[in-house]
Prior knowledge:
The protein is α+β, with helices and mostly antiparallel strands. The strands form 5 sheets. Strands 10, 11, 16, 17, 18, 19, 20, 21 and 22 form a 9-stranded mixed beta sheet that branches. It contains 34 helices and 28 strands. The chain is elongated, with a radius of gyration of 36 Å. Helices cover 49% and strands 18% of the residues. The relative contact order is 0.09.
Amino acid sequence: MKDFYLQSKDEVLKEFKASPNGLSSGEAKERLAKYGENALVEGKKKTFFQVFLDQFKDLMVIILIIAALISAFTGDAESTIVIIAVLILNAVLGTVQHVKAEKSLESLKSLSSPSAKVLRDGQKVEIDSKKLVPGDVLVLEAGDLVTADGRILDNFSLQVNESSLTGESTNIDKADMNFDQERPLGDRLNMVYSSSLVTYGRANVLVTGTGMSTEIGKIAKLMNDTKEKKTPLQQSLDKFSSKLAAAILLICLVVFGLQIWRGQPLMDALLFAVALAVAAIPEALSSIVTIVQAMGTQKMAKQHAIIKNLAAVESLGSVSVIASDKTGTLTQNKMTVQDIYIGGEVLQPNELRLDNQLHRYLLYDVVLNNDSRLQANGKGIGDPTEYALLEMYRQVPGIDMGDDQIALSEDDLRDFLDRQEEVPFDSDRKLMSTKHLIHTVPTIFTKGAVDVLLDRCVSYRIGDEIKPMTAEAKQQILDQNQVFSENGLRVLAFAYKESDEELNLDAENGLIFIGLISEMDPPRPESVVAVAQAKKAGIKTVMITGDHKVTAVAIAKKIGIFAEGDLAVTGLELDAMSDKELDDKIEKISVYARVSPENKIRIVDAWQRKGKIVSMTGDGVNDAPALKKADIGVAMGITGTEVSKDASSMILADDNFATIIKAVANGRTVYENIKNAVMYLLSGNLSAIITVLFASIAGLPVPFMAVQLLFINLVTDSLPALAIGMEPGANDILNRPPRDPKEGILNKQMVTMQGALIAVSVIAAFLIGLKTSSAVACTMAFSTLTFARLLHGFNCRSEHSIFKIGFKNNWYSLAAFVAGSLLLGLILFVPSLHSLFTVTPLAGGQVGMIALLAFLPTVVIQAVKVIREKN
């Protein structure tokens, strides 16, 4: 894609063999055939059926399928039905999670207007925007959506809002001018880009790019090429699952071979292997993880963080870098008057006085020489810079009249001192003037860019005295303007003169300087606290913005992002860096200004190369590829485009950076709970594996039926695991550093120790039952394992003892224990369920022994925790 902004308009016309009068219908038809329609190309997506089949590619799922086939072959219909039902349920859940339609490109397409005005055959005609071709002359007017990229040919005070591409909400004054060096997209004033909105003026533009050749097309290509990363938990579980599946296959083969070697019939050996596979595989694991994540999303939604991708919940817990957009996220996305320079001093808006004539003339200029309005609800209509001035006027105290203060509203003031003549704002002139009758004296008020307005001022006013503008006085004003600018403030200058001459361009001379008003989009108060919290939590916050470097650094300093020794770079400076240079400097760079979509992806990628989990925030189309590339893409719910929302994992309903930090705290809690739930499930499964292996090596009967193990894994295990997922977060959760994403999800020593303790009790129950019969032994082993695992749910709630955490903050754990115990009681004491679960009636002493043996592992584990806490 050529940089047409670096060419003159004559060179661009020559390049496209075009004329300022547009193409002929015949030429347009030929070019449409050559370049194709002005539309975005969509990447290939998997079908629903392909996604569904993908759910069965997991090795553990394949082992369960084999187990189901063996059960069917041996005539065990109940086990076969249960296993198949579990597999289908998990596949459906996985498919629903995966098939959240990739709407990003559809949203990008929706930015295209259905029609466009062009010059064809020398006439202005309206056509379908899909039929636009390079070389067309596009006619733009206020209110139009720009439907292709183009070089300005004729400009009439054109202003364009490019926020969807640059992320900055301020309108851009376009100009027919030439550039001789590279510039970021936001500074290419002689170009317009597809998806921008014309807010003022008009222009004729030569179309230089359509469809995928536009800047928004480049973003669409980035979206197609960018693959979503798996979350740290997904990576941990995938690694764990593959190791577990390989171990299960190996152990099952060893056990099967051992049974055959001992002379067991083939079917019995197969049943033993199936029982071991079912015991080893945590069937409910994926469902539990999904449900715990879903519960986390509900909690976050109440705090204005809407999670689109469940897997993103726990990723938040390991975020170590937050790359945040400036406008609207860290700032209020609302221009606000800061400091006022008048009469040689710097004042706040509430320090202005209507009974001070100099102040009053500034306020006249602010209100009367202004085209914006404030609605009754306080919402501004017009240019944000202008209605910020009206909001400032409302802060000025009225004239003190004893017990009352008299103040005119801006509408009353405009009615009282109505506008007689005007010269509208012009982007080339950078001035606006209006004429009014002030105390019967015709007065012209002018506002505009400081450097331009100062050159037209012949005097300045201090109090009631008007003095000639000397070089020294002018330098003093310029010095103050420099101070404002270095603090990231946008500055307007104000002047007036008393004159009854006709108001035209020549009348904007011989002015009296009144003062300067500085504005900025101020930081959100809560952003300062949130950035400090992030720092305490070991998270680095960096600012990525389309704004200028000086403004960005000033805001970053106020918020606490930019500290002494930090670096700020522009998109062009970033382009000039090699990957090695960026890797060397990245931990010192806190601010990125005037960046492109490619820059944003590169920044995210560089942090990820360092092994960091990156959260990226944004609201524009230009942010979408980086949002998709980041581990956690965070879009703005209020100001965000549909494209950015679709590309993200999380949406901030309140557009507030502080909400991200709350979400990080929740994410850390969710991960802790998932980690504890996984430990609970796997330590329980390990106890079953040890028991089955013991029976195999000792030459004893199968201690469990496959249907019994499925009942434990899917029903009685699920309830305590879900209760563990409801555990509230620790008070110090944000005082800990982010967890290492390479860190495994399991504490292997704890899982092994706890699993072995439960296995000892279950083996003891099995051996006691064998003294009566194999059926009683199987029933006692099943009952002890079930009850011990229900009790084990209390052990896995926290690393602390139950005496320290108590039950009050998680009644779900008690409810899960009671519900699971009732289900076990039904199976043991309702005769009609005996055959379904292959259990036999037990004597009272045997039931008591089951309870005693089941309690022992929990007593030991809690005793160890109490001793550790005391030490």
